[in-house]
Design goal:
It contains ten helices and four strands. By secondary structure, the chain is an alpha+beta fold. It folds into two domains: about 120 residues, Alpha-Beta Plaits; about 100 residues, no CATH class. Strands 2-3-1-4 form a four-stranded antiparallel beta sheet. A hairpin with a 3-residue loop joins strand 2 and strand 3. The longest helix is centred in the middle third of the chain and has 21 residues. The chain is globular, with a radius of gyration of 17 Å. The two termini are about 25 Å apart.
Length: about 220
């Protein structure tokens, strides 16, 4: 299986998720645009949190373009961990996702022009260390909002740090803990098998916070 870490951010590093409505919309787009069939979101009311899960049943015949293994939404950027299901699946999905969200954002805020700084960044995950830490790295990104020193391994209160992480709903972290948040967005089987289930994933959080060396991961993090 080929895994790709992808990222895109707002032009000039501008905020692209202004409030929860924007974040809900992006989660909705992760679901809706992961379909080989054309999706006309201009005529469909976007999904709320509680009906994204049910829509997975409602639209069980979706032809998935990619498997979304992990995601995280930050104020001015997002991270995804993807594997293609069809030829050029990453390119197709990212084009639909970025164009669809930008159209929504520009219409809502009555703006014109590019929303993202350019073509998304993407890198094939080939390094074992990169693979081991990457899902955690994606899920740790919200700590930049509360405990930015995590990147230098200078966390003083791990319990407080992890509690903040567990309160942040705009990623797949809670679903990997076994707490249903946005369960229909991600295919978690591959990583949960690797991490030995929800408990295995959870048991490694503090260890990864202490041991993850971002300098060694370098350009693999795309930032």
């Amino acid at each position: 299986m080929d895994l790709y870490h992808t990222l895109n951010r707002g032009v000039d590093k501008r905020v692209i998720f202004m409030d929860d409505q924007d974040r809900f919309r992006f989660v909705h787009d992760l679901f809706e645009f992961n379909d080989s069939d054309w999706v006309n979101t201009t005529t469909r009311t976007f999904a709320k949190l509680h009906d994204i899960a049910s829509r997975a049943v409602e639209r069980k015949n979706r032809k998935l373009i990619v498997d979304i293994h992990a995601f995280c939404i930050m104020p001015n950027h997002y991270h995804l961990l993807l594997s293609p299901r069809v030829e050029n699946g990453i390119t197709l999905f990212m084009k639909k996702l970025n164009m669809g969200y930008a159209k929504y954002f520009n219409e809502r805020y009555k703006r014109t022009g590019a929303l993202f700084e350019g073509r998304y960044k993407s890198i094939l995950v080939e390094n074992q260390v990169h693979f081991n830490f990457l899902p955690y790295y994606i899920h740790f990104n919200p700590l930049d909002l509360s405990t930015p020193e995590w990147r230098e391994k200078r966390i003083k209160d791990y319990e407080k740090t992890i509690n903040f992480l567990n309160s942040y709903r705009w990623s797949s972290h809670l679903d990997y803990l076994g707490k249903q948040n946005f369960p229909s967005i991600t295919n978690r089987k591959f990583l949960l098998d690797y991490f030995d289930g929800n408990q295995g994933y959870e048991s490694q959080i503090k260890t990864c916070l202490k041991e993850m060396n971002l300098e060694n991961m370098g350009t693999l993090l795309l930032e």
